[in-house]
Design brief:
Layout (H helix, E strand, L loop, with lengths): L3 H13 L3 E2 L4 E2 L3 H14 L5 H26 L5 H26 L6 H25 L4 H42 L1
Antiparallel strand pairs: 1-2
Helix pairs in contact: 1-2, 1-6, 2-3, 3-4, 4-5, 5-6
């Protein structure tokens, strides 16, 4: 069985990292590919629960919406603009709330339950603070805007690192459990 945590961190990496080619024209790591990885990672999680179905469907909706935002940027129409990006960032935070709830259900009464909960608390606080900083930076001028944006981005980088470390621990736990099940 494939490791779901590899797909979760791969998907979140695609969403989090913007690799722009030719300025702002082409993102060579588009977010909708990241959401596709998240859909598959959620599918691979070893649990049957409504949160799994709901999270997977929410990721599919976000995949389509992020494709529309990317298409808007590729075409240069910028109808959605910064508000569309902010809205997608907000929906990502809501989505990650449900992913963490699902992961808490997966690891209930198991070794990773405490780490899942602590990562969830820190991740959500950092992502929400970063989101508020980004949203607030729209309304301030020049140099101050850049400072607010930078602080918000750094908070979200820390959240990304926390989630990466969690997925690394989850991947290790998954491999150990797979090894135990294969010995039986």
């Amino acid at each position: 069985m494939k490791n779901p945590y590899d797909y979760l961190i791969g998907g979140f990496s695609f969403i989090f990292i913007d690799l722009k080619l030719y300025g702002e024209v082409l993102d060579i790591a588009p977010d909708f590919i990241g959401y596709a990885f998240l859909v598959y990672g959620i599918y691979l999680l070893p649990v049957f629960h409504n949160l799994k179905r709901w999270s997977k469907n929410f990721a599919i909706i976000l995949m389509v919406m992020s494709f529309l935002v990317e298409l808007d940027q590729w075409l240069g129409s910028l109808l959605l603009g910064q508000v569309g990006e902010q809205f997608m960032q907000f929906l990502l935070i809501v989505f990650m709330y449900y992913v963490f709830q699902l992961l808490l259900h997966v690891h209930e009464h198991k070794q990773l339950e405490v780490k899942t909960f602590k990562t969830y608390q820190k991740f959500m606080a950092l992502m929400l603070c970063g989101f508020v900083m980004h949203a607030f930076s729209i309304n301030v001028e020049g140099n101050l805007r850049e400072n607010f944006y930078f602080i918000g981005a750094m908070l979200q980088v820390i959240a990304y690192i926390l989630f990466s470390n969690y997925c690394r621990a989850g991947s290790k736990y998954f491999k150990e459990m797979k090894k135990v099940h294969s010995l039986q």
